[in-house]
Specification:
The structure is a homodimer. By secondary structure, chain A is of the alpha+beta class. In chain A, the strands form 3 sheets. In chain A, strands 1, 2, 3, 8, 9, 10, 11 and 12 form an 8-stranded antiparallel β-sheet that branches. A two-stranded antiparallel ribbon of chain A has the order 4-7. The first copy, chain A, is globular. The interface between A and B is large, with 48 and 48 residues.
Amino acid sequence: MMNPANLVEVWRGPFLESIHQGHAVICDATGGIVAAWGDPEAVILPRSSAKMLQALPLVESGAADAAGLSQAHLALACASHQGAPGHTDVVSAWLAELGLGDSDLRCGPEAPRDREIKHDMIRAGGSPCQWHNNCSGKHAGFLTLTQHLKAGPEYVDPDHPVQTRVLEAFEAVTETKSPGFGIDGCSAPNFGTTLHGLARAMAFFAAADPESSHARDGAAGRLTQAMIAHPWLVAGEGRACTELMRATSEPVAIKTGAEGVFVAILPKQRLGVALKIADGATRASECAMAALLVRLGVLPADHPAVQRRMNAPIPNRRGMLTGHIRPVAGLAG
Amino acid sequence: MMNPANLVEVWRGPFLESIHQGHAVICDATGGIVAAWGDPEAVILPRSSAKMLQALPLVESGAADAAGLSQAHLALACASHQGAPGHTDVVSAWLAELGLGDSDLRCGPEAPRDREIKHDMIRAGGSPCQWHNNCSGKHAGFLTLTQHLKAGPEYVDPDHPVQTRVLEAFEAVTETKSPGFGIDGCSAPNFGTTLHGLARAMAFFAAADPESSHARDGAAGRLTQAMIAHPWLVAGEGRACTELMRATSEPVAIKTGAEGVFVAILPKQRLGVALKIADGATRASECAMAALLVRLGVLPADHPAVQRRMNAPIPNRRGMLTGHIRPVAGLAG
């Protein structure tokens, strides 16, 4: 196994205070590696960066169309949203359409990630519902497929028909046999793969045709289109995925995952990108993804949203600038 | 420069999901290295792990005694407290005794780290004062010394007499010339040193005699005693420093710092410990420090507070156990 590469530096004044290592792969639609850092064959859990893979069975089975899901629903199925009303209202209405409610979800409650919304909830003495969970769109998608399959309610059970279909699609588009799964923060199984496998899957999505008569190809194309059409639904105001998707010079789908995972789908270039920060830090995965997308020419380096990630200032409690988070020299090209 | 060593593993199900590397040194009172991981000569910013060093001039100058400071005040001067009323009431009364108020602090406002207190503040529509800042005790100490020296109000200026005295004491007890400073989260200069230098300083504190007629030796001994006597003031309920200090089988002072730094002072064994997680993660610095103190025989491995750090469960949003944070094999002995 190859060592991870230095990817992101944290500077405070003249000191390199901390450093983040990781693995990154840029893959083309043939599955070939265009560029790599660290070990392309490192096995990872893709966490929420796999949501578009987990949504494939929902679309390719016909369940999404049978339930009349819109592009906004598909974007939310791939989202780690921040629990703003614009997210949770869609999810709760979606559940109601299915004749279901919050208690049918299996993701667990999570405080909204949006600071103002969370504070409003605290002030009102409220507590979060399961639909506030950042994964609630994915779970509403799982429930839609569950109904379509006439399967039982415990849809996060690894043996449930929803999850066996997810695994089949996951292994097909990563072109690797998954070595197993961990239980995700939202209780769904999260299947392992290699960085190369995850980047290959993203390249498959990049090359997929939403009009294709091949169900999986069409599903991948439609999910990519949905994410690109709804950057706010995929995350929310101020979040890296949303801000970077809004800043690209051509349509790109970008998705974060816990523990330092980040992926991107570049349809025009038919490229997929996957990276994992070895220590799991999100500040570093955001920085490294911004740098790689600058390198690929789809993010302008001087865009404020890009600078906020690729050259993130570290202010202190009096607002003084103490340092910066930066990609290693050469990563952004 | 030697590479950092693997110190802490993050497991999810059967997968080693993330890994934290770092440097650690155990030093004796002669300055000799008893054990080391990674590079003992790695240069770091010790951040809040240097607070007892930053408090040396306050005590050795006679300023603390002239102002009638108690052991509780000295503990708070070394603290990263969580802004509970038991912390902020002492700091605000201390400032009042000096004829000063919140606006004389230069640490900036920070929301209390205690969740319930923070939520109470949000519910009441309040906003944090500077004395809620986790560093406000250190700053009250700086202000006490400022008055004693009849110096100007901008005590965080690196050229201010308070900071030049801090630097002199810092270089003396680390036995290294500091290569410079970064600006800390609280706006004070944070002087750099090596891991070895920081561990040597901790061993100096461990061997110091609070009754000594030598001013610096006596100051180090009194500050160590103050931290050991007031584990709650040094951090707060549920915090690693407080819980681990309460769990030791002999008196030990333990102090965290931002960006993955942690130190310990073991007076009975006359040992100092310093560690830095290369990527800056606190979850890893807490785990590694708990493991090293188990290794040194001063923390019982089976104590619940030790297990919460050394074998920290990773629950998900439904309370399911998804994995653990653990030291690498052999670190805990």
